[in-house]
Design brief:
Elements: E1 7-13, H1 17-26, H2 38-46, H3 49-53, H4 55-58, E2 68-74, E3 78-84, H5 98-110
Antiparallel strand pairs: 1-3, 2-3
Length: 111
């Protein structure tokens, strides 16, 4: 039987209440309002922020293996975080990244 590799994607919206709450607690708060620094959020994710705020997603896979962050990409209004047991290619059709998903759907539509 072939072993399956667990791979997860997390999308953080820069306009979400969840991210603003985490950002104000863990990063810095500007006195004139909340102005998120994407680089600080990314650095915090690499340094364990996700394991702290979303332990049920980041700690272990169903097979009991350790989960790691393999990539973080930021777009205009979202940050995509790839988590898994090991790095692996993603199927654009099954991906939650809207840019990859829509590209896969358009490719399917044009064929």
């Amino acid at each position: 039987m072939k072993n399956k590799t667990v791979q997860q994607e997390i999308l953080l919206s820069f306009r979400s209440h969840f991210l603003s709450m985490i950002y104000s607690d863990k990063c810095i708060t500007e006195p004139s309002g909340l102005c998120m620094d994407v680089e600080k959020i990314e650095e915090a994710c690499w340094n364990g922020l996700l394991k702290e705020v979303l332990p049920e997603i980041c700690n272990m896979s169903s097979s009991g293996r350790q989960m790691f962050i393999w990539g973080i990409r930021d777009y205009n209004s979202i940050m995509e975080i790839d988590i898994g047991e090991c790095p692996s290619a993603k199927d654009g059709y099954l991906c939650i990244d809207p840019y990859k998903f829509m590209a896969a759907r358009l490719k399917e539509f044009n064929n």
